[in-house]
TrEMBL record:
Designated name of the protein: Glyoxalase/Bleomycin resistance protein/Dioxygenase superfamily protein
CDD domains: VOC
Top-rank lineage group of the source organism: Bacteria
SUPFAM superfamilies: Glyoxalase/Bleomycin resistance protein/Dihydroxybiphenyl dioxygenase
GO molecular function, one term: dioxygenase activity
Alphabetic keyword roster: Dioxygenase, Oxidoreductase
Amino acid sequence: MTLALHHIVVDCEDAGRLAAFWSEVLGRAVREGADAASAFIPEGGPGEAGWLFFRVPEKKVAKNRMHVDFVAGDREAEVLRLVGLGATLVDDHDEWNTRWSVLQDPDGNEFCVVQGR
């Protein structure tokens, strides 16, 4: 048996607000009915997981134990686009023959954008 990624689930303060941000990032629409408690961005195509957002009472207080990495042909341009959408650039790295940027979404969740080859 083989596993396949089905959904990426994000705990947050305002599910509708965070889903709207990730909707712009991913270029996929939020399903109708999103509110502050829960929101859903459906699967895009083959191999593209859906994204679920759920409001939780506690605030984020530490670094993510797991995060999402994206790859971009023009990392610098993509980082500028994401910052324009509301992300925060945390740091840029150039190690192990790889360049990547660490960002945070509007709720402080870390994610990375890696330079494609």
